[in-house]
Amino acid sequence: MQLNEKKTKIVYCKKTHRKDKFKTVQFDFLGFSFQPRPTSNNGEMFLGFDCAISRKSEIKIAEEIRKSEFHKWTSSDITRIAQEFNPKIRGWINYYGRFRKHMLMKIFRIFNWRLIKWAVKRYKRFGRSMHKAGRWLRDLAVRYPQLFVHWQHGFQTA
Predict the structure, then answer these.
(1) Could you tell me if 18 and 64 lie in one domain?
(2) Does pTM top 0.90 for this prediction?
(3) What is the pLDDT tens value at each position of the chain, 158 positions in all?
(4) Which domain does 79 fall in, by range?
(5) Is 157 within a domain?
(6) Fewer beta carbons within 10 Å, N or C terminal of the chain?
């Protein structure tokens, strides 16, 4: 077996009690980024070595959302969009949400923003107002929290 020189490196797992300084303190593995992160235990904050979704995975998912161009699906209703994306969203949450679920917020902000763009294009009553469409989407998330999987996990529009 040969090691891939680009993927193989020695990483210093920096924690609160480890004070040494090393160049490499972070690495990505299976879509997660392992690095020093603030952690709490019984209300006490300290530096721990922990994982969350990697930046590379965030970019990949965001690109998948953008490439779908669902904000242009003006002939479809919102339940069609939910049917199309809920299996993907469920998979993202089940895989990447195991550790630091709140780190998925960037992805779901992008998704919700695309939903707002879709609403502006679909419904003329918003008069191209992203603000009005955003308010409508927030109300919809409150009335029908089961519509999208990420809404069920608290990732509603801001």
Answers:
(1) no
(2) no
(3) 787 877 776 666 655 566 666 665 677 778 888 877 777 778 877 677 678 899 999 999 999 999 999 999 989 999 999 999 999 999 999 999 888 888 899 999 999 999 999 999 999 899 889 999 999 999 999 999 999 999 998 887 65
(4) 54-152
(5) no
(6) N
